Amino acid sequence: MPVTLPTDHPTLVVLSAVFGCHYGVIRGTLGGQRVVAPVSFALPACCGDYQVLCERSLRALLVPGQAIAVQAQALAADPRTGLLPVDIVLDAGGRTLADLVISQGWAVPAWPCSAQAQEALAWARQSHSGIWSEAGVSASGLGVSGALERDTAPPPSAPHAAVVWGCLLVLLAALAAQTAVRRPVATVRGRATGLMRLTLTLGRWYGAGLLRPRVRTQRRVER
């Protein structure tokens, strides 16, 4: 009996087995019946050598025995494989496992795609993740459509950024120079104040007779 899953909302099932990172077996109660069905995970094709990194990371996430939320991409199974393609939903926002792969820069979505996939691609391009960190890589070269390339293009860098950094450096240098000039002046002022206090103190002592030489009276020599 073919298994059908909702295409408009996720269904909570248990992941019984995983084969690689593209196929698995789910079990749960669907339509009041206990079913066990093999499925294929809907994932975009990875770019170049990121396939190995992607499979290693997904195998750490797809642990048999855990509960997952799946949503069917079609009402019927794929006639080529006989498996029902499903998305693994990660959170309440509708982000899927495919969106996670795209946000890491390991793959690009096909057009048209969901809003979550567009956000994931925009994040990967702005943060230069995965394939976007390599020199000479362009969206069109990876097969991204023109509309998707425009919608997810990174924001242009500000042309005045270098000027702002230069002004900040000049300001810091001026503050450092001003601080260096103030320190010797404060030291000289401190020394002058100390010398003035010492002079006044000595004057008071002299006026009080503390610093005057004592006159010793000569004793009369008795003959």
Q: Which features does this protein show?
A:
223 residues, alpha+beta, OB fold (Dihydrolipoamide Acetyltransferase, E2P), five-stranded mixed beta barrel, 5 helices, 5 strands
Quick structural summary:
The chain is α+β, with helices and mostly antiparallel strands. It contains five helices and five strands. α2 (97-103) packs parallel to α3.
What can you tell me about this protein's structure?
The structure is a single chain. A five-stranded mixed β-barrel has the order 1-2-3-5-4. 21% of the residues are buried. With 223 residues, the chain is α+β, with helices and mostly antiparallel strands. A hairpin with a 2-residue loop joins β2 (23-30) and β3 (33-41). α2 (97-103) runs parallel beside α3 (115-127). 38% of the residues lie in helices and 17% in strands. It starts with 10 loop residues before the first strand and ends in a 16-residue tail after the last helix. The chain has two domains: 11-151, OB fold (Dihydrolipoamide Acetyltransferase, E2P) (Beta Barrel); 159-204. The longest helix is centred in the C-terminal third of the chain and has 47 residues, at 161-207.
Which band does the percent of strand residues land in? 15-25%
The shape, in one word, is elongated
**Name given to the CATH architecture of the largest domain:** Beta Barrel
Number of strands: 5
Strand order, biggest sheet?
A: 1-2-3-5-4
Task: Bin the helical content.
Answer: 25-40%
Mean pLDDT: 81
Question: Helical region count?
Answer: 5
- Order of SSEs: EEEHEEHHHH
Number of domains: 2
Q: What do we call the CATH topology of the largest domain? A: OB fold (Dihydrolipoamide Acetyltransferase, E2P)
CATH class group of the largest domain:
Mainly Beta
Sequence stretches where pLDDT stays below 50 over 5 or more residues: none
Q: Give the distance, in angstroms, between the N- and C-terminal Cα atoms.
A: 151 Å
> Which structural class matches the secondary elements?
alpha+beta
State the major sheet: 5 strands, mixed, barrel
Radius of gyration: 40 Å
